[in-house]
Amino acid sequence: MNTAPHRTQDSDPRSVLVASDLDRTLIYSAAALALDVPDAEAPRLLCVEVYQGKPLSYLTETAAALLDGLARTTHFVPTTTRTVEQYRRIHLPGPAARHAICSNGGQILVNGEPDEEWRRQVTGRIADECAPLEEVRAHLRHTADPAWLLKDRVAENLFAYLVVDRALLPGTWVKDLSAWAGPRGWTVSLQGRKIYAVPKPLTKSAALREVTRRTGATRVLAAGDSLLDADLLLAADRSWRPGHGELADEGWQAPNLTALPERGVAAGETILRSLTRAAAPDRA
Ligand SMILES: [Mg+2]
């Protein structure tokens, strides 16, 4: 976008901002693909992330072409709970995003670099409203069982997450953690093998509002699959979620939300097709 003079007419597709979650919304690990067709009919996949020398995340080639088009015609804003370092491993099709939201809203990247002023604002709000990260980590250490705890991590000194063995994780553990964390200003989300504990003011939607303000976008479309995407989906004019993930498992609905039946990497393709259609000027 940024060299062309900015126009604000609704008919200008550039006035549309598309904020999408990445993992299990647009990109999928091998374990999350959920391909339900015979191998001979499986779509060709494009690998967009390599981790420790091995392919990790994919989208279909059709999804890749749709994303390329979307990134050329809208303000496309990758919006993820990943840290900046984890985000930088992903190489999405299309031109580089001018803005990206990382660390669940704790970081706004502008042309790939963190915006320090935004980070300061977010840190201040968390310090005012939430129990300290160390208290949450201590609680996690005391209650998590090494029998199922695989990794215990802090993301950019903002929030904590655990990698767990889901087969051995007791059914009530996440619920109990949520009940403990809620009154302390923290929220809990279970996504695949990861359990996130995130300060409540650390949201994708707060960062989205800031990016929307900066770009002057007049219409916002969003997509996401997990509890940490709920506020993002509500903040948009229209939003989509796949048929898998925390929100689908809960049957979560909203008036502006389209709940798609597709699951796995096929859902990523449908989401991109829906976003492309909704962003087209004649739909404005
Ligand atoms: Mg996700």
UniProtKB/TrEMBL annotation:
The record's InterPro entries line, in alphabetical order, gives: HAD-like_sf (IPR036412), HAD_sf (IPR023214), TPP-like (IPR024197)
Per the UniProt entry, what species is this protein from, by scientific name? Streptomyces uncialis
Q: What protein name does the entry list?
A: HAD superfamily hydrolase
Record keywords, A-Z: Hydrolase
Gene3D superfamilies reported in the protein's UniProt record: HAD superfamily/HAD-like
GO terms for molecular function, please?
hydrolase activity
